[in-house]
Amino acid sequence: EKITKSATYTNEDLLTLEKKYETTLNEIGKTANAHTLIRDLAHLKAFYLNKPTDALELLNDFMETPRLEAKNQAYLKLELANIYLFTGDIWEASLLYSQVDKAFKQDQLGETAKFFNAKISFYTGDFDWAKAQLDVLKASTSKLIANDAMKLSITITDNIGIDTTKAPLLIFAQADLYAYQNKTQEALALLDSLEKTFPFHVILDDVLFKKYEIYYKQQNIPKAITYLEQIEKNYAYDILIDDALYNLALIYDYDLKNKEKAAEYYKKIMFEHQGSIFTVDARKRYREIQQSNSPTNTIFENNTN
User: Which residues have CB under 8 Å from 41's CB, separation 6+?
Assistant: First the structure.
C-alpha cells in the first residue's frame, strides 16, 4: 500500500517487498494458484527494480505451470506483454495483446489488451488506426478503460486535424513511450522541446500531465504538484482537468497528509466535475475525511450530495 498509494517509498522498501514475495512463493510453491503473486512480483521486478530480464524469465517459466486456467494465463500474458513493451520489444508485446484480445473479446480482459494495442499504434505514429480502436473502446463496460480510451482519442483528434501538423503528436507519443520505459531523461527532453517549439499548442496540457507523472514517479512531489496546478490554472476546461484535480487530492491526502487540502480538491471534483469518473471516489473519501474531523471545522459543509 505504501508503494501503490504514495510516492514515499525507498529502494529498500522495494527490495524488502521483493523478498517477501519470493519467501511466500517458496513457502506455498509456484502452483497454478500462485498466479497473482507471480504477476505482481514480475511487475515489481520490471517496473520498479529494473530487472525486466528476471521478470520475463519468471513469467515465461510460470506460463508452463500445469492446471493454469485460461483466464489466469491471459492475465499473465498481459503482464508479459507490458514488460516486452517496457524493454522495447514492441511487436512481441503487440502479438501477446492480440492473442488476449482475440481470446477474451467480450471480456474486460480483452478490452484491456485492445487498449494496450491501440497505445502501441499511438506510440508508433499510426494515429488513425489507434483512434479507430479507441473509439470502439469508448463503449467499454469498464469505466476506466472507456475513460482512458476517450481521452486518448480526443488527444489524437485535436492533433491530427486538417490544419494541424502531426509533428507535436509524434514527439509526444515518443515521449510517452520513453516515460513508460522509465527512460526519464529522454522523455523530459522531448517534452521540454514541445513546450519550447509549440508554446501555444493544444497538446500542452498532455505535456504537463506527463511531466507530473514522471516527477511523481521520481518522488519529486513539489515539482509534480506544480504541473498539476498549471493544468488547474490554465486548462480548467480541458479534458485532463479532473485527472489533475483528483491527483492533487491524492497527493495531499496520502503523500503530504494534508487532509483539509485534499478535501478541498475532492469537493471541487464533486461539485464542478460531476460527470467525472472520479466523482464517486471523491465523494466517498471526502465524507471519510469529514467524519474524522471536528464538527466545528468550517471547511466542511453538511450537504455533500
Answer: 18, 21, 22, 25, 55, 58
Question: How many other β-carbons are positioned within 10 Å of the β-carbon of residue 172?
Answer: 24
Please list, residue by residue across 65-101, b when 16 or more beta carbons sit within 10 angstroms of its beta carbon and e when fewer do: beebeeebbbbbbbbbbbbbbbeebeebbbebbbebb
Residues 6+ apart with CB under 8 A from 220: none
From the number of C-beta atoms within 10 Å of its C-beta (0-12, 13-18, 19+), residue 199 rates as exposed
CB atoms closer than 10 angstroms to residue 215: 20
The torsion defined by the Cα of 233, 235, 236 and 241, in degrees rounded to 10, comes to -110
> Helices (H) and strands (E) in the chain — how many of each?
16, 0
pTM passes above 0.85 = yes
Quote the mean pLDDT of the chain. 93
CA atoms within 13 A on the CB side of 30: 15
pLDDT over 90 (residue 119): yes
Q: What is the pLDDT of residues 133-186, one digit of tens each?
A: 999 999 998 999 999 999 999 999 988 875 568 999 999 999 999 999 999 999
13, containing H or E segment? helix 11-28
**Considering only the top CATH level, what class is 1-103?**
mainly alpha
Cβ distance 262 to 253 under 8 Å? yes
- Give the list of residues 6+ apart from residue 126 with CB closer than 8 angstroms, or none: none
Higher pLDDT pick, 107 / 304: 107
